Each structure stands twice: as structure tokens, then as C-alpha cells.
Amino acid sequence: MNNQVRELRGERGWSQAELAQKLDVSRQTVNAIETGKYDPSLPLAFKIARLFGRSIEMIFTDAPRVVEPEEE
Q1: Name one GO molecular function term (predicted).
Q2: Which residues are 61's β-sheet partners?
Q3: I need a surface site. Which of 20, 27, 43, 54 has the fewest CB within 10 A?
Q4: Is 63 exposed, middle or buried (0-12, 13-18, 19+ CB in 10 A)?
Q5: Tens of pLDDT along 3-37?
């Protein structure tokens, strides 16, 4: 599952530790979610969505992530 957690966190200038504290999870959990190694539980996904003021579908997707080629 792909997600926008890293981008949303970065927009707010929060560290992984700060986001983890707001979500009441470990920094390692935030890192695992951001890297796609862990899919959050539904209650945690709702908590993340509420924190960022977005719907779950706007943050999490099962579609492949499209990586734009770097401009030369």
C-alpha cells in the first residue's frame, strides 16, 4: 500500500518522532508506514486522516506509486 504520510509530515515540518507522539505510536511505526513496510490498522489510519484533515483514501492507496523521472 502506498501513502502520502511522509509528504504530509514534511509539509508540516514534523519529525517522525513528533508525528509518532501525536499518533501515540513509536517512531519506528511511523517509519514503517512511510516506507510501506507496515499497513496501519483501520483505527490508526482514521487517526492519521483526522490529524492531516484528509480522507483515508487521499492518504492511502493500493495503486502503484508513480515515480516521475528526474529532469535533466
Answers
A1: DNA binding
A2: 2
A3: 43
A4: exposed
A5: 999 999 999 999 999 999 999 999 999 999 999 99
DSSP 19-64: HHHHHTS-HHHHHHHHTTS-PPPHHHHHHHHHHHTS-HHHHEE-SP
Amino acid at 65: R
Contact 30, 19 (CB under 8 A): yes
Q: What is the pLDDT of residues 32-64, one digit of tens each?
A: 999 999 999 999 999 999 999 999 999 999 876
Strand-pair partners of 2: 61
* CA distance to 41, 62, 66, per residue, from 47 (Å): 10, 19, 26
Q: Compute the distance between CA of residue 37 and CA of residue 65 in angstroms, rounded to an integer.
A: 14
| Residue ranges per structural domain of the chain | 2-59
